[in-house]
Design a protein that fits this description.
This protein is α+β, with helices and mostly antiparallel strands. It is 21% helix and 33% strand. The chain folds into two domains: 2-14 and 167-302, Alpha-Beta Plaits, CATH 3.30.70; 18-164, Alpha-Beta Plaits (2-Layer Sandwich). It has six helices and 17 strands. α4 (179-193) packs across α5. The termini are close together.
Length: 303
């Protein structure tokens, strides 16, 4: 299969079940919304070592937020549901509560299995920072929320946040002739995806250059560089997957609330990438179908 003259490999991406939260952070203006989002989602690329995979979902206009201020939806993914309470408590407590003018609300609106959604008491626990000066907010919202006195006024936070089942690790790979062309194609992929709701691309700028494989020559590592896709190793290994003109590969990794949103993001991202001259092939990462139960074949996604 080809798309705009670019080979679409007959393969599939392999993704995993995960749990996630989706929160809404508001602030006095867009500048502070963006600062809060950057801080709260930092160090959130891969659960291999980070406490969660985190990223910006979409920016939300003031007329669609509970307190009528500009906002941003953030998503946090984790493989173990009993760890999500601590993830959100740390991220909101250390990065949102501390950020000038912010407020924080639950924003989960869809999930893979809605009947299995559950709640964590993030806001209720954070209220104790108020040292008995905290107060329940009455009459402003259709949900329980607290106001905590802080040095620029009050921090408002919803009492409970929902946790849903989602999907982590959806992906596709962009092979290009040069780093410049492949990076441009990857950036266009992210631009095409950015307005979709309920999905994040957790790596820097949405793009991963350090794709990994399971295992390592070093016994103390459980993951290591994906050497078959490293152009500098093409002549040094027997199992390189790169052609003579493949001098750069970038991976777009997707975490989403549903299968439909993962497939839609893959489709939009791939269609955008192949418009850039110098792109040779689109592929995807999998483990032979043995590790993740969600499999998305590229030809089917693009059909």
């Amino acid at each position: 299969m080809e798309l705009n003259g670019v080979e679409i490999e007959d393969t599939f991406c392999e993704a995993f079940g995960a749990v996630f939260t989706r929160i809404l952070v508001t602030a006095i203006n867009e500048k502070w919304v963006k600062i809060a989002s950057q801080i709260a989602t930092g160090y959130g690329t891969s659960t291999i070592h980070c406490d969660a995979e985190a990223g910006v979902d979409v920016y939300v206009p003031a007329d669609k937020t509970p307190d009528n201020r500009p906002g941003v939806a953030l998503m946090f993914f984790k493989t173990k549901k009993d760890k999500m309470d601590q993830v959100l408590l740390n991220r909101v407590g250390q990065c949102i509560l501390t950020c000038p003018t912010t407020a924080c609300f639950d924003a989960l609106n869809t999930s893979l299995v809605p009947e299995k959604d559950f709640e964590i008491k993030t806001g209720y626990k954070l209220k104790f920072f108020g040292d008995k000066f905290e107060e329940k907010i009455e009459g402003s919202y259709p949900f329980e929320a607290w106001k905590i006195p802080v040095m620029d006024g009050e921090f408002e936070v919803q009492s409970v946040f929902k946790v849903g089942k989602g999907i982590a690790g959806g992906n596709f790979l962009i092979y290009g002739e040069t780093q410049k062309a492949t990076l441009e194609a990857s950036e266009k992929s992210i631009e095409a995806i950015k307005d979709l709701e309920n999905i994040i691309t957790p790596f820097p700028g949405g793009i991963a250059r350090s794709g990994s494989k399971v295992g390592s020559a070093y016994s103390f590592l459980n993951a290591s560089t994906n050497d078959p896709l490293c152009p500098t190793l093409r002549q040094k290994i027997d199992n390189s997957l790169l052609g003579e003109k493949d001098n750069c590969v970038y991976e777009i990794i997707l975490d989403g609330a549903s299968e439909e949103i993962i497939k839609e993001a893959m489709k939009l991202g791939i269609r955008a990438a192949v418009q850039v001259p110098g792109i040779n092939k689109i592929s995807a990462g999998n483990y032979g179908g043995k590790l993740g139960k969600f499999h998305y074949r590229l030809h089917d996604v693009l059909a």
